[in-house]
Each structure stands twice: as structure tokens, then as C-alpha cells.
Amino acid sequence: MKKLLVIDTFNFFHRAYYAIPPSLTGPDGEPINAIYGVASMLINIFGLIQPDYAVAALESKEEIERKKQFVDYKAQREPMDEELKSQILLLFKLLGGFGICQVMVSGYEADDVVGTLVERYSGDLGIVVASNDKDLWQLVRSGVMVMSPKNKGKDADWVGSSEVRARFGFGPDLVVDYKALVGDSSDNIPGVKGVGKVTATKLLLKYGSLDGIYEHADEVSGSMGRKLVEGKELAYLSRDLARIVTDLPLGVDLEGCGFAGLG
After folding, report:
1. For the segment 211-248, what is each residue's pLDDT rounded down to a tens digit?
2. pTM surpassing 0.90?
């Protein structure tokens, strides 16, 4: 089976930038730490999986739909460091130099581009998603793995269904419902106030889904039952925010994203 590599692009950029000090500069004195780090990770990945196709998923330049739905979504995120911003143009040129297609959909995040590619091509291609973002674990299934390349050496951390179960106690299909309950501070997703990780896991394992929990909310006694009832609206909003979109019009022909290799 042929393999598709999908790169969570800005996740890559930030990882490389923070892994290597900005004191690494070029002849002109400008920082090149992100450029060096991204190039190293890409070479690592290509050596590990030798993909037949390669796509870099990008964030929309326009306001994203989740922000329209919930104005505080990712509101706490700090602006990009100037030292990283100064390298962005060269980083995109680097992707182009490696022959990696770049795909963006107006109003949507890179995760949604990744999700649409997974939904469209899983079963026909083996898919590797390159990112250390656990949000993408909801996409894991047979033939789809998430890998996080190491900054040094030809190695990576791999996440399949068994790794998701080992981490959470349930499979990828419940990752979104879990975040609906506990929220996600990194994305400013609220979740249900007072519901922690242990309780959320117990409820999901007992009732099977967020819908199942609320169908049986009257069976949950005491203060937790009240918290669930009071937080129902936020729970479903949080699920919508956490769920990756998988049906975007990508406007890309995958045959035009063939990867020729490093030779």
C-alpha cells in the first residue's frame, strides 16, 4: 500500500523553533533555528517512512469558523515570536524545495485539512500524520498513525489505537467526547466545570459516549449530576469545537502531491 505523509505545519515550525535556540543564525546574523530544525525533522521523517505523497496542512489566513462559533476559542494564545515570524517565508520555501504540497482551506485550521485527507484516503493509502498534537489522535484508525519525530536522530514516537487506549483508557472514537467533558486549556475549550479527567473517563466507559452520558444524566447522583446538567450546553459546544472537520473541499489532486524522495 502506498503511503501519504500529512504534516501539521505550524506545529512543526513551533517545535523546531523552541527546540533550538534562536542564537543559531545565518551569515547575515538572522535566526535560522526553525529552518534548521524543520529541515532536520523532515529528513528524519522521509528516512523513516519514505512516503509516496506528502502534504503540508496549513492554517487559514481568514478568521476560522470555530472563532465565529466561540469568540474565546484560542483567545489566550500568544502572538508568534518575531524571531520565528522572520523565518516563515523561508520555511515555506523549504517545504516547496522538498516538493511538499501546501494545502489551506479558508476558515479552517490545519487539523481540519488533516482530518479531511485522512477521511478521504484512509483505506486506500497508509497515512502518517506528523505532529505531537494530541488533538489529532481522534483521527487514528486502522492504517492511520500519528508520529512525532525526534529533533535529533532517526527516531520518532508513534501513536496508533493501542497507544491512545494506553494513554486514555479508551479508543480514538471517544477522544472528542472526553474533551467535551474536561475541556482543553491550550485551545480555551471550556468543557464542563468540575468534571476532571478521572470522572470523565469513568462516565464515558460506563455510558459509551457524551450522548449516552446525557441520556442517563439522572442516574449520576450528587453534585456531579448537577454539574453535568448545568454544563450540558458547554459540553456540546466543546464537542463541536474539539471535533475535527473531515469533509472540506480541498481543491487538490493528490497525484500532484507525489513525493519524489531526497535523491
Report:
1. 999 999 999 989 999 999 999 999 999 999 999 999 99
2. yes
